[in-house]
Amino acid sequence: MPGKRARRHFSQLSEFVRGLIIGIKIAGWSTRRIAGQVDHSECAVRNCWEQWTREGTHARKIGSGATRKTMRREDRRIVRQALVNPTGTRSTIRADVGVAIVPQTISRHLAEANLKSKRPFHALPLTLENRQLRLQWCQARSMWNVTDWQKVVFSDESRFVLGTDDNRVRVWRHRV
What 8-state DSSP symbol labels residue 60? Predict the structure, then answer.
């Protein structure tokens, strides 16, 4: 929508922003004006002010949010399993840890540990000698015509996948 500023939805208000909202509201600003100033929704500003008038505090409630399904020890075990078996899938990691959690939880814990699922290397990087040999091969065939090139088969062509799974093995690695 043109003319509308993008606001950060579904984000928690920091303690500083909560205090700022209370101070500005006490100074007499409207909810809409405060929401524009702190770059949050009017609903978030209204909820913060209602909590202040109802409870006399702007602090977040302890224990708010979703309950944890894993303990710190299990979180460390998830990361360790991914490092020990880098080709392991989220379902095998879940089975090894032995906790009933969804695959997104495993991905989140691995992302917190700076691990990401990537495809493994197909080949080692080329050495200077290999590059020179490839260049010589290309230069020797620079004058070929279409019929000569039709006899050549290239093995490093791109793959196109129309489905959701490319059936490639993925590896858990640290982000660079």
Answer: P
The CB density around residue 77, as the number of other CB atoms within 10 Å, is 18
Q: What is the rounded CA–CA span in Å between residue 13 and residue 43?
A: 12
* Res. 6: pLDDT tops 70: no
Could you tell me the CA-to-CA distances from 98 to 26, 74, 167 in Å, in that order?
52, 9, 26
- Could you tell me which of 28, 57, 56, 24 has the C-alpha nearest to residue 40? 24
Structure pTM?
Answer: 0.44
Interhelix angle 15-26/31-38, rounded to 10 degrees, is 150
Half-sphere exposure of residue 75: CA atoms within 13 angstroms, side-chain side: 12
Please check whether residue 61 is in contact with residue 143, taking contact to mean a CB–CB distance below 8 angstroms: no
Per-residue pLDDT tens over the stretch 160-172: 777 777 777 777 7
Phi, psi for residue 172 in degrees, rounded to 5: -80, 120
Give the pLDDT confidence of 131-160 residue by residue, as tens digits. 999 899 889 999 999 999 888 877 766 677
